[in-house]
Amino acid sequence: MKKLRVGIIDLVARGPARSLFMRIMGANLASVMPQAIATWCIQEGHDVAYLCYTGGKDLLQAPPVDADLVFISAFTESAQTAYALSNFCRCRGVVTVLGGPHARCYPSDALRYFDYVLGFTDRTVLRDVLRDCAPSRPTGVYLSPLRGNRSRCPGSGSAGRSWRRPCERLR
């Protein structure tokens, strides 16, 4: 496997922070999983740049545009920012990956904007992404250890058990 330049962005804020509270306390909202991904990438021998974006600076200056692969972790509140950031990176030839609560709750939406969307993630899934590291367009690839290693998004005609929202089961 070739040595990759990996960027990891933990989107805590959806845009520039105006409140004093967010400027001071925003870093306390950082997620653990992006930090674990950074550590695992370093252990795999890749160069890693990590950013916990709390709204303190210009986000377009933040992503490493010379990266081969960018991981973005986002809550649904910052999903539109994550989509825009993915578009910004993809236009420059960077492969993008979305993880976090938004990726687990709305994978079918996220697949339109990212090359890879990660459900629950372990080192095996991470190694698959690092090994492949190829654009997957127009629709991304959903990866999760709970659904087998490589599959399309739940509900998009993928093989395996059909996935329905709980309210659809009641009808």
Task: Report low-confidence residues grouped into runs of 5 or more.
Answer: 148-153, 155-171
The DSSP helix count reads 7
Rg, alpha carbons: 16 Å
Report the span from N to C terminus.
Answer: 49 Å
Helix content: 25-40%
CATH topology: Rossmann fold
For the record, the count of structural domains works out to: 1
What's the β-strand tally? 6
* The CATH C-level class name: Alpha Beta
In terms of topology, how is this protein built?
Elements: E1 5-11, H1 20-25, H2 33-43, E2 47-53, E3 69-74, H3 79-90, E4 95-99, H4 101-105, H5 107-110, E5 116-118, H6 123-132, E6 141-143, H7 166-169
Parallel strand pairs: 1-2, 1-3, 3-4, 4-5, 5-6
Sum up the structure in keywords.
171 residues; alpha/beta; Rossmann fold; 6-stranded parallel sheet; 7 helices; 6 strands; globular
What does this structure look like?
With 171 residues, this protein is of the alpha/beta class. It has one domain (5-169): Cobalamin-binding domain (Rossmann fold). It has helices at residues 20-25, 33-43, 79-90, 101-105, 107-110, 123-132, 166-169; strands at residues 5-11, 47-53, 69-74, 95-99, 116-118, 141-143. The protein has a six-stranded parallel β-sheet with strand order 2-1-3-4-5-6, sandwiched between helices. Helix 6 links the parallel strand 5 (116-118) and strand 6 (141-143). The protein is globular, with a radius of gyration of 16 Å. The N and C termini lie far apart (49 Å). Residues 148-153 and 155-171 have low confidence and may be disordered.
